[in-house]
Specification:
alpha+beta, Immunoglobulin-like, TIM Barrel, Jelly Rolls, 3 domains, 11 helices, 38 strands, 17% helix, binds alpha-L-arabinofuranose
Amino acid sequence: MMLPVNKIFLQGLTLAVALSGHLAPEASAQITTVTVDTRAGKAISPDLVGIFFEDLSYAADGGLYAELIQNRSFEYQVTERPAWNSLTGWEFVQRGEGNGRIAVDEAMPVHPNNPHYIRLEIGKPGEGVGVVNAGFDGISVQAGAKYDLSIFARLLYLGNRWGSHPAGAMPLIVRLESKDGAILGETSFEVADFEWKRLSAAFTASRTDSSARLVVLAKAKGGLALDEISLFPQKTFHNHPNGLRPDLAQVIADLKPKFMRFPGGCLVHGNGIGNIYRWKDTIGPVEQRRGQANLWGYHQSVGLGYFEYFQFCEDIGAKPLPVQSAGVSCQNSDGKGDSGQQPMPMEQLPAYIQDVLDLIEYANGPVTSTWGARRAAAGHPEPFHLQYIGIGNEDKITPAFKERFRMIFEAVKAKHPEITIVGTVGPGSEGEDYDNGWKIADELKVSVVDEHYYQPFQWFWDNLQRYDTYDRNKSKVYVGEWAARGGAKDRNTLQSAIAEAAYLTSLERSADVVLLASYAPLLANRLHTNWSPDLIYFNNTGVFPSINYSVQQLFSVNSGDAWLPTKVDNIGKPVEFAASTVRDSKSGDLIIKLVNGAGTAKPLHIELAGAKNLPASATKIVLAGNDANVVNEDGRPPAVQPRESSLVVAPAFDCEVPANSLTVIRIKPEPTR
Ligand code: AHR
């Protein structure tokens, strides 16, 4: 239904509201009036802006997960990438006069979930026979920083099956080396057992190097098996063992996301049912986790697993929103476009549903429960306060999907009425799956549905009224994946960021029905980017938040729990201006967001109807740039940074917003006397 401009009807409340304004080019000097009614307001979701984490573009391994060794457990497989095998990432070396051989074996592994390991047989040790790992595009170490090394090792029986190791214990040297062979740190061990033993030591790097290698050298004649060779910086985010890269985690934390959806995306429902993400494979000691192919074309070690996800959510104050497959695989399984969805056989459903229920127990159950005890054993007896669970990810809405979704939905609802279930309505902003997904949501009365859309920037300007007409008595909405896409190489532009800002004003206005929204994707390793644009780029030494990041951050840190009627005059086409005002009841602050998508500055007259206790000045933060189309690989022209200043405010005041800009005005009322 088309809304009459200037008048919308929300929950029986008639508000004189202009949704957005426009200045025709010839009228660009004309003053636009923004009127905020500070006496009225409707309750909105305080959790609107969150994040969506998926392991694509090496977001986890080689990204947020701080492990420095690539293919640490020798589980890379040809099925993951044609050129890959267990030795990918490793180089066999025979130093000095050394000679020997390397093989991959599966007999007597460290754990059945981690079946492959290497055998080294050393005929002549020379200066060492062993393996070298250059991490993910080089190991980055800092002078003076400490690194924890961990290796599983055992001696091999050589000769006949009753034979014992000929040379007794095997000396092992482990070094951090620069590319040119300089030693940056060294430690040694003696492997003396025929059973797997974990060896550990700490290095201090003697100098900073962004392309170091880990070198493991056997120094005697004989044989040994090695697996799960791991190197971690001691400094991780919040200093957790098996933790996260602190610089990257901090940039995410600085978004102050209200929730975090994980672990995907398409990763959740997987490339075929055998590839569905199973949370139980991702907890416990890392050497016992079951890594698997990542449908984005690489390997997921699941070292960053469900415990670490929950812990990260807790660390950054984000509500966890784990997503489980709805018992079907991704419709694009095996590259079959829309027809590759594989349903889980019905006889497997009861066990699968139990897994979903067990996840809730893992997060929230008492330590006396089976899965609560597993959480406690991992070091977290307190619950993780799970409130949301997602079932399905933009699935094709087939009868098989519907049947399985219903079974999982009903089981969770029956056992855990306290959990809010987030359903799914397909991969687009409209269409068959969207319609059919909504039909299921209506029928089952699903609390929240997950909408996804990646659209050109103009779509967002054209759809600022999308949620104004959504029925407030039906399911609420989670905009689980959204971003302005398109333009040169799908790169981040100010134009897309400003369109997203405009759209966020509309989500704020409709945050009585849109409870949650997360830009997607969150992270991309610059050298391995599967998808563009992304919110935050990184390499081994740096983190590069995009312009779009600033927009998400400005809305997240300036969120509120009440939306105040915000009227803008001069509405026309094309729409190039949008505004929204919220109040944060904790601080009492009034926060106005003004978005100018025009290529010229806009003079404004702002009226704060009914405002009381106004201070003389307010904080103003402006994100703006002259060229809306500049693209670069950092996702942000260097000059386009949010700039803070102060602004004189009064019940009515004038100001100007620059071309291509988002302006946030935060007014802290004077205390009442
Ligand atoms: O965000 C990238 C991908 O986009 C997600 O994995 C999927 O859900 C969507 O198609």
